[in-house]
Known about the structure:
Elements: H1 4-21, H2 23-50, H3 54-62, E1 67-70, E2 79-81, E3 88-90, E4 117-129, E5 134-141, E6 154-158, E7 166-170, H4 171-177, E8 184-186, E9 193-201, E10 210-213, H5 219-228, E11 237-243, H6 250-257, E12 262-265, H7 266-270, H8 293-328, H9 330-338, H10 343-375, H11 377-384, H12 395-422, H13 425-430, H14 441-462, H15 468-483, H16 485-492, H17 501-512, H18 514-548, E13 558-562, H19 570-580, E14 583-593, E15 610-613, H20 635-638, H21 641-647, E16 665-667, H22 671-675, H23 681-688, E17 692-694, E18 706-716, H24 719-727, E19 735-743, E20 755-757, H25 759-764, E21 768-778, H26 784-796, E22 801-805, H27 814-842, H28 844-852, H29 858-908, H30 924-945
Parallel strand pairs: 5-10, 7-9, 16-20, 17-19
Antiparallel strand pairs: 1-11, 1-12, 2-3, 4-5, 4-11, 6-9, 7-10, 8-9, 13-21, 13-22, 14-21, 15-18, 17-20, 18-19
Helix pairs in contact: 1-10, 2-8, 2-10, 2-12, 8-12, 8-18, 8-27, 10-12, 14-15, 14-29, 15-18, 15-29, 16-17, 16-18, 17-29, 18-27, 18-29, 19-26, 21-29, 27-29, 27-30, 29-30
Amino acid sequence: MKNWYHSWWAAIRIARRDAWRSKGRSSLVLAMIALPILGVSAANVTLRSSDVSTEQKIEITMGAADALVTDPGMGGEPVLQTPDGEGYTSAKEESDPSLPGEGRSANIKKALPAGAKVLADRSGNAKLRTKHGLLGTEVRELDAADPMVKGLLTVLQGRPAQKPDEVMVTTHFLKESKLKVGSKLSARGFDREYRIVGSYELPGALETGQVTLLPGAFLTAFDKAQEKAGLRGSGSSTSYLVDVDGGFTWNMVQEANAKGAVISSRAVLLDPPSKSEVPIYERDGWGTFDMSTAGQATAIAAIATVAGLAILEICLLAGPAFAVGARRSRRQLGLVGANGGDRSHIRAIVLAGGLVIGVAAAIIGTALGLLLTFALQSTLEEWMGARFGGLDIRPLELLGIALLAVFTGVMAALVPAITSSRQSVLSSLTGRRGVRKSNRVLPLIGLVAILIGGAIALYGSTVSEEVTLVGAGSGLAELGIIALTPALVGLFGRVGRFMPLSPRLALRDAVRNRGRTAPAVAAVLAAVAGTVAVATYAASDDAQMRAQYEPQLPTGAVSLQLHEGGGRDVPLARAAVVRNLPVDVQADVARIVVGNINCEMYSYAKGCGEMQLLLPPAHECPLWKVDPANPEASAEEKFSKAERRKLSKDWRCANGGPWGGSDSVLVGDHKLLTVLGIKDAAAERALKEGKVVSFDRRFIESGKVGPGGKVKMTLITDREASEKARQEGKQPPGEVKTFDAYQAPQSTKSYTVMMIIPPATAKASGLTTVPFGSYFTTEKSPSSEQKQRLDGQLDRTGTDVALYIEDGYKSPNDIVLLSLTIFAGLITIGAAGIATGLAQADAEADLKTLAAVGAPPRVRRTLSGFQCGVVAVMGVVLGSAAGILPAIGLRLAEERQQMKWYQEGLDSGFDPGSVPHLPLVLPWDTFLLLLVAVPLGAALLAALVTRSRGALARREAT
C-alpha cells in the first residue's frame, strides 16, 4: 500500500469480498439504507412530475388557444388583474360608492381585438339520469372538434359530439353513472334525450364528472324548462377561447381589462411582465406572496432535522451490523496489521464496507424508486387527480439523494472502524477481547445536553411563543440521552444479581460489551421516544376533545335535511333512511319559506326572502346592540374591558348572535321531542295544543320558563332593506307573526333545535312551509355496512342531502397510534436482533465452554432470547421516559396559548366557555405493548431462530 489511492482501492476490494461472503448481514444493512432512498427518490420523481410546467399548464387550461377570456361579473367596469389572470379586482378604489354590483355580465366580445377568432365554452350544472338514479354533473357546451380545444381534453373512446342529440362524457362520469358509450342520457325535468358517442378525460382534473355537447344543444333549453317549472336553472357561465395573430400581449390584456374582461394569456404566462408593469401590485394586499426568509429557514431546518434524525436512526441500527462484520473479520484485520498495515488501513477497510454497501444501496434504492414510479404512474396520476406532464427526472437531485445513502453507510461504519483500529494485532490474531475502558467524557456531554435541552423545552413551553423551541429542546435532550446510553446500560447491570442464570448472563454480557449494546439500545430509544411523544400528545388531545365534544343529537339518532328548494326529494330520501337503517321513531319536519317555495335555504335569488325571530328589546345583548346615533361604534368603544368581561357571561349575550335561522326553527310535532330525548310532558302538551315550544328564552317576551309566553317572527321579503335596518339598529321590515309559546327549562338539551312550531299552527298563521327532512331514533346503532349502503343510495338521488348519524366521539388517532406502535416494535425487534447477532459472535467461545461442561442445549437458545430481550427492554424503558418530555412541553405550550385566547375572548365580550384545561394522559395501551409485548416478542423470536446446538469444537486458549 504505497499511497492513499492504492490503500483505499485494496480496502474497497476487501470490503466488497467480505460483503459478498456475508450476504445475509450485507442484505440487512443494504435494505435499511436502500428503503428510505427508494421512498425519497420515488417521492422526488412523483412530485416533480406532478408539478407541470408552464407550457403544460397552459395546454390544460386553454388548449391550443392564445388566451382564455372570462367575465368577472363586474358589469363591464374596468378591472385590474395579475399576469396569470387568477387574481383580479375592480379598477376603482374599494371606498368608491359607485362600485358595480356583483353578478352583472359584461359584453366580452367587445373587449377582444379585431380579427380574433373566438370559441365559446359554456358550463352549467344539471342532474342527469343514471343507472342508479340521478347524478349532479357539470354540463359543458363546447365544440370539442375545434383545433383550439386540442390539449384541453383527451378523447379516449369514440368521438366528440357532432349532432345536437349527441354527447361525449368523461370516464369518471361513466364510472359513477354505470353507463357506457352508446347509452342514452337525459336530465331530470327535461324531455330531450341524448346518445353517448365518446368518452374523454380532463388531464388536470381526472375526478371530474362532466358531459360535453355542441354549443346550444342543452343549457339554454334546459334553463327555460326549469324556469317554467319554477325551479333553479343550470347556473351557467361562459368563457371564451381566443386565437389572435401574434398572440395576446400584456398591452392587449390591459386593454381588455379596461372593458371588464379578465384574460389568461399564453404569451403573458410564458413571458410575464415585470412587477412594475402590473398595476394591481400597487394596491395594498396584492403582490407576490413568496415565503419569507424566516419561513424558508424554518422549512429548511425542519427538513434537515427530519433527515438528520433518519440518518442517525439508520446509523444506530446499521452500526452494530458493521461491528459484527468487523468482529468476525478481526483475524483478517490482525493479519493486515501483522503485515505492516497501520491503524488507518484498518479503519479504511471497515469504512470501505460502509462505502460499498452505501453505494449499492444508493444504486438499488434510486433505481427501484424510478422503476416503482414508472410502474405506478397511472395509479399515482389517478390518486393525485391529474396527469403528469411526463416523468420529470432530475439527475442532480437524484444524485444528492444517492450521496445521502453513501454518507449514511460510511457514518454507520465509522464507530466500528475506530473501535477495530484500536485493537492490538495480538488480541486480533488470538481472538482475545482485551480490556475495554468506558468513555467518561461522553456521559458528561450527554448530561449537559439533557439539562440544556430540558431548559430550552421548558422555556419554549412556559415563556416563549415559539413552539419550535419545545421540539428543538426535546431533540437536544434526546440526543443527550443517547450519548448517556452506555452509562445507563451500566446501571441496568446492577439488577443482574437478582436474576436466574440465563438472564443474568445476558445482562452481564450486555453491560460488559457496551460498545455493541449501546447503539442498539439507542436505536430502540430513538424510535420508542418518538412513538411515545406522539402517542402521549395524541392521547391527551383525545381526552380533551372527548371532554369538549358537543353531540348534535342523542347517541344513535339520525337527522336528514335537504336544503334544495321545494323539498320534492325529501320523501325519496326519507324512504332510503327507513329502508337501510333500523328506524324506531320517525319525526318529519318542515321549514318556513318566504317567497318562492323553490328557493333554497338562505338563497339571495330574486323572489327569495327569509324568516327571522324577533328579539324583544329588553333581551338584546348590549354588546351587539347597534346605537342608531353611532351605528359604527364597536363594543370596545362603548364598554370598558371590565364591562365587556361581565357582559360576556350575561344570558342575553349567549350563543354569539340574536337571530334564529330557518334551520333551527322547525315545523314538527311531539315526535321530535322523543327523538331529541326531551322528556317534558308540558312541552309535549303545548305542541298538541298548538303552541310553539322554545328552547331559547331570549325570544320569549317574558323571558320566563313555562307556558304563557309570546314569540314573534318577521317574514322578510326585501333582504336589502332588512340588512340596512339591521345596520341602523332598527327592526327589519316585514310581516310580523305572533305565537303563544312554552319556554322549556334552561337545563333542557335541544341540541341544534331552537324552536318547534306545530304544523297546524304554522298553517293557521298563514306560514308557507316545505318538507325539510326528518329526525330518527334507531333500535341500535347503525353498522358501517348500513351507513355505506345508505350513503350510496342517497348519492344516487343526485340531491344535496345533509345526513348526520350521532355516534358519539370517535378518536381519529387510533390508527395512528397503532401504526406508530407497530413501527416502534419493528425497530425494537430489528435493533435487538442485530445486537443479539453481535453478542453471539462475541460469546461463541463462552457458548462452546458451556457446551463442553455439559450445559443443556436449551441454554444456548434461552441465552439468545434473553440477550435480545434485555436490549429491547432497556431501549423501550429509556425511550418511554425520553418521549414524555416533548409531549408535556407541547401540551403546556398549547394550554398557555388557549388561555391567552380565552382571556382575549373575555376582553372582547365573547363568552369563550369554560376555562381551558388541557389534560396530560399517558397512553397506557401503547406503554403496555411497548414495555411488555414487544420485548417478549423479540425474545421469543430470537430464541426460536437460534440453533439449540452449536458446533462443538476445541476452545481456543486465551
